[in-house]
Each structure stands twice: as C-alpha cells, then as structure tokens.
Request: fold
Amino acid sequence: MTTYLLAGGGTAGHVNPLLAVADGLRSRDAESAVLVLGTAEGLESRLVPARGYELLIVDKVPFPRRPDAQAARFPLRFRRAVAQVRDHIRAHDVDVVVGFGGYASAPAYVAARREGVPFVVHEANARPGLANVLGARRAAATGLAFAGTPLRGGEVVGMPLRREVIELDRAAARDEAAQHFGLDASRPVLLVFGGSLGAQRLNEALADSWGDVLAAGWQLLHVTGERSDLSDPGVPGYALVRYVDRMDLAFALADLIVSRSGAATVSEVSALGIPALYVPYSVGNGEQRLNAATAVAAGAARLLDDATFDGDAVRRLVVPLLGDPERLAAMSDAASKVGTRSGTENVIALVDRALASV
Reply:
C-alpha cells in the first residue's frame, strides 16, 4: 500500500487541483492512503474533510516580505512547521509528497527532503509562487499547467481539473443546461463571469451593453457574483444569476466566454474547446495575463484590457465577434488543441515516476 501526502491550500487555485489528484489516486487504488496537508485557516480546512480526506495540520508561516518583527520570527516558526510535517510523514509512513503551492507546501518540501521521501511539485499559474520556486530545485519532478512557467525542470502536464469538467459532453448536456438557466438551446449563448465574488468591471460593462448582445442574435448568461447588486432587467434571452453551483452546465451552454483569466478558468475553458475573451485582473503580479498567453498565442483566445473594458468595448470588440461564426469556429478548434483534460493523469504519472526512482 502506498501512502500519499498532498500539500497545499489557502485558495481554490491550490485546493481544487489538489483534490482532483487526490480523487484520481483514490479511484485508481482504493487500498492506498491519500492524506492532505494544510493549514487550519485555509479553504482546505473546509473542503478537504468534506471530500472525505484526512487533513493533517501545519502552522501557517507566510514568507516575510520586508524586514520587520514577523521576519525576525520567521526562521523559528518555519523550523517548527517543518518539524510538524516530519512528524506527520513518520507517523503515517508517507511514501511520496505532492505539493501544489501555498503555505503548506514549503515546509512539506523541506520535510520530505530531510526524511528522504521523494516529492513532486505542481504549479498552476504561469508565474510561480515562492514555495514552488524553492521546491522545484530539489523535486523529483515538477509539473506545469502552462508552457513557459519559469521553474527548474518543469514539464507541461496541464491542470488537474474537476471531474464534472473532465467528463462534460457539452453537446449532450446543452438541452439540460438551457432548461436550467431558462434559455433557448437552439440559439448561441455568451457566458460572462468573474469568479464567485464577481468582477465589477465586467458587470458594469455588460450592464451597459447587454441589449447590444441580444440585438446581435445571441443570448447572455451573466454570472454577476454573490456581492453584486446589479439588477435583472427580466428580458427573454438574458439570464442574470448571482452564483452558479453547476458551472459545468454553464460551460455546456457557452458558445463564447468573457471572463477573468485565473489559472483554473483558462485551463477549464481551453480543455472544453470554448473560445474566450479574457480580461485579466489588473491588480497583483500580472499572472492572469500570463495564464492566458498560451491560449492567446494558439488563437484560442484574445486579451482585452481591464482599464478600458466598458460597454463601448463590448460593442466594439465583442459584438462583431458574435457575428463571425468562422472566426469563432477557428478559436474553438485552437482551444481544443491547446487544452487538455488529462492533467490529473499526467500529475499522477509524475508521482509514479518519483516513486519508481527511489
């Protein structure tokens, strides 16, 4: 029996690929043990037990960004976190560690190396986090979701995706999806979303231009986010919803997508072969623009500027594309070639290789 320790968490971008790999390992061999290492504060503290996995806790120790009191305490706190992980590895006789970034991963990589246990790194973003940059230097294997991610020894394996996305047959599910959202399955649909909390820039732009989308002969499925106070005009062909718990059905209905370009979004949209217009979030380290770069280079997507994305931009840049079925078909074909649904299997293959090298 093999015991796997999957480390990561903090955000959905770390937890979801971790859980996809955990599910893949468990479905392949029910006799093996799959454990998850995370913090008590992160999203994993709720999602991991809910999925049926044991969560082993490690202290949350952020890397210091400036010389202050927290930086002075960091070495001792980090050593304590590494010791916690080493205790977990010994207590559970762990055979291999797989890290997905986040606070739990850095001490996991150090602990695995000191215990002589092989470890594998998976980086979901085109711009890697510090934990994975450090981990990749000694990893048995490093998997990348996107080509060009600057990690030592990185191999492009794609993103481990949710089962409902991997198994989605968009054509077969279209009628169910249309009924679910109250739209017409025979007419094209523009899907606009900005994540669970929404994207104010996208919401405001569509509030000003939804009529132009409908006038172009398309329907609009607009996921505004739970915090949005955007009012529903209540017109046929425009489905405004705050939150979608069946994103697979939204994807089944989408003929074109306008969204942010988080790593998971780009990976799922490309895997499903859906043409997209990405509006990268302008705050942060620029990773959203980099996440979309491969899809854009392949012709599967286009980038739109966040600062200038408004109703006029929709009318000038989006609406003309709605009337160009040949261009949309070409983008969809390109997306199907650049995306992959086998990210989970590819990461597991790296893990198997790491185990075989011991």
